[in-house]
TrEMBL record:
GO biological process: cell communication; polysaccharide catabolic process
SUPFAM superfamilies: (Trans)glycosidases (SSF51445), CalX-like (SSF141072)
Record-level GO cellular component terms: membrane
Keyword Calcium: yes
Gly residues biased stretches: 97-119
Record's protein name: Beta-galactosidase
Length: 606
């Protein structure tokens, strides 16, 4: 069995120091292995390039207590300190991108302080010079080292620059790039112009702008230059599109990748500001439980019909059924596909979850159509929705659906109540996206039930009276005319398609003649229900509406209701408004839309 050494007992014999070793501890100069001098007398070790060979700072050795000069630092190391008498060591000059070392203290009774080291040259950071060492009672303080100027940086003065897209042709926009100060030598900077890789709506290379790489040269003393970006105009109404411009390398200056206040940044966005009026045709699309593959197929078919708009519901009662618990999956899917297919999104924002409405709404046929008991809650949801989808290019919002009807504003429509709701939503959304387009909720026609609807022109005049309409960017309407053609004077409802000029006259009379009337629902049901039409008649009604809207410079876009039938019962009119059947097979209207425009977006097999 092995024994255990006693605690504290030395297991090896001590080696008695020699006389020379005892003397060196009291008298003698420092060495690279032991930079400090002897305890009483001696000079501290001074480092140089042959002894301090790494990148770390080497600090000078301290001198003896009674006399001797302290050693010098190297690579930004501090100088050593003297004892009672003697000069402090000089601080070492800084390495590139490093600061200089501080000078060592001179002798307490007599001795000059060491000089501070010079700051190292840097393009990446501000380096500092060393501070001179303190002197003794009889001596001179060490000189400070020499500093280096702040590095010259290069970048863009702002993170985004808006330019007008234009209606046609190619032109060159100049994006300014700057140096933080003049350089004694020329500075060369390379750059790239490319698709934006973030979440926002991006411009398409070759269609909206020309992808490019290149370089700019700053002559000595020059602080500003420009990068040319070629942009292509078009007449499509679309979200603002982003072109990504990045500085990729620089010779003679530093590219700062992340900017703080007042600094330049190495990347910027050129934002092509849409200057086209809303136009084109669209489709209302309801998810109705469709999976991702089906939704993609639906968007492919819309693209084949040259659809440029998709109208979707952001239904508060479905998205936030419990306070603070959001279910965005359905709307996320639709928005993602719209972006992937380069389509504009029009959001119908409305309807109220049970937790946000009054208890007396339970007896209503459609309880979710009741407005919120606290409009601030609706405003909070509007803000949340805008914050989620504005970065994806969603900028058009229809506030509520047919608020001039008792069905969607129970128990009776009230323009003052709706005006308050519209103000709340508009303020909330514009607080997130100041460039958002806010539409008065789609005004439906008045049918045959007395008091159930207020005619659109009368209701809009009331909204001008309470100040709500003036806050809107346009008016959304649902001017159904079926079973008649759009301009047929025999249409059975007031506020149908043929009455749109009357609505425009109300707007013009209040100084809003330059605002658009958005037709956000228009269609006709096929099948066997009362007032249903044949598939051929449906096609004729839809195409006639498009032809008429093209003649009005105050109307558009035209959004058809709807893409896909809601069911398969031919006797239920609500299930048969689609231009596609439930199985996505096309009706005559879909085929006519595909054939009426040879410049459709994609070729889709049916």
């Amino acid at each position: 069995m092995l024994g255990t050494a006693a605690v504290g007992r030395r297991t090896t014999a001590l080696t008695e120091p020699t006389a020379d070793q005892r003397a060196s501890r009291l008298f003698g100069d420092g060495t690279a292995e032991h930079p400090d001098a002897g305890l009483l007398f001696g000079n501290g070790f001074s480092w140089d390039g042959s002894s301090c060979t790494g990148t770390a700072a080497c600090h000078g050795g301290n001198a003896g207590l009674l006399g001797g000069s302290a050693g010098h630092g190297f690579n930004g190391g501090n100088g050593g300190a003297a004892g009672l008498f003697g000069r402090g060591g000089d601080g070492g000059d800084g390495r590139p991108d490093g600061s200089g070392g501080n000078g060592g203290r001179g002798g307490l009774i007599s001795g000059d302080g060491g000089d501070g080291g010079d700051a190292g040259a840097s393009l990446r950071s501000v380096t500092t010079a060393g501070v001179g060492g303190d002197s003794g009672m009889l001596g001179v303080r060490g000189k400070p080292g020499k500093g280096t100027p702040a590095p010259v940086t290069v970048g863009f003065p702002r993170s985004g620059t808006y330019v007008t897209e234009g209606g046609s042709g190619a032109r060159v926009e100049l994006l300014t790039v700057q140096l933080s100060g003049g350089s004694a030598t020329a500075v060369t900077v390379t750059y790239s112009v490319s698709n934006y890789t973030g979440a926002q709506y991006k411009a398409t290379a070759g269609e909206d702008f020309a992808a490019a790489t290149g370089s700019v040269v700053f002559a000595p003393g020059q602080t500003s230059a420009t990068i040319p970006v070629t942009v292509y105009g078009d007449t499509d109404y679309e979200p603002d599109e982003t072109v990504y411009v990045e500085l990729t390398s620089a010779i003679g200056a530093l590219i700062v990748r992340t900017a703080t206040d007042g600094q330049l940044a190495g990347q910027s966005n050129l934002i092509l500001n849409n200057d086209d009026r809303a136009s084109g045709i669209g489709m209302t699309l309801h998810l109705r439980g469709a999976d991702a593959a089906t939704v993609k197929r639906e968007f492919d078919l819309m693209a084949a019909m040259n659809v440029s708009w998709v109208r979707i519901d952001v239904d508060w009662s479905a998205v936030e059924p419990r306070r603070g618990k959001f279910q965005w999956e359905s709307t996320d899917l639709l928005v993602r596909e719209a972006v992937a297919h380069n389509m504009n999104v029009l959001v119908m924002l409305g309807f109220t979850p049970a937790w946000a409405r009054s208890a007396d709404t339970k007896s209503l046929s459609y309880p979710s159509h009741a407005r919120a008991k606290d409009l601030a809650a609706f405003g909070a949801f509007a803000s949340t929705a805008a914050a989620r989808y504005a970065p994806l290019g969603v900028r058009s919002w229809e506030i509520w659906n047919e608020p001039n009807t008792a069905k969607f504003w129970p128990a009776r429509p009230d323009a003052d109540e709706y005006g308050a709701l519209f103000r709340t939503a508009a303020t909330a959304i514009r607080g997130v996206d100041s460039r958002a387009t806010l539409l008065i909720g789609g005004l439906g026609p008045q049918y045959d039930t007395p008091g159930a609807e207020i005619p659109p022109a009368q209701y809009l005049d009331q909204l001008y009276g309470n100040g709500a309409a003036q806050l809107a960017d346009g008016i959304a309407v649902h001017p159904y005319s079926y079973p008649h053609l759009p301009m047929d004077p025999q249409q059975r409802q007031e506020g149908g398609f043929a009455d749109l000029p009357e609505l425009q006259a109300v707007m013009a009379g209040h100084g809003d003649g330059d605002k658009l009337i958005w037709i956000t629902e228009f269609g006709a049901p096929t099948g066997t229900s009362v007032n249903a039409v044949s598939e051929e008649q449906q096609a004729a009604i839809l195409l006639a509406a498009r032809q008429q809207v093209a003649q009005w410079n105050w109307a558009g876009p035209l959004v058809y209701y709807e893409l896909v039938d809601g069911g398969t019962d031919p006797s239920d009119g609500e299930q048969n408004f689609g231009v596609l059947r439930k199985d996505l097979s096309p009706k005559a209207a879909a085929l006519a839309l595909m054939e009426s425009d040879t410049n459709r977006r994609t070729s889709t097999a049916l």
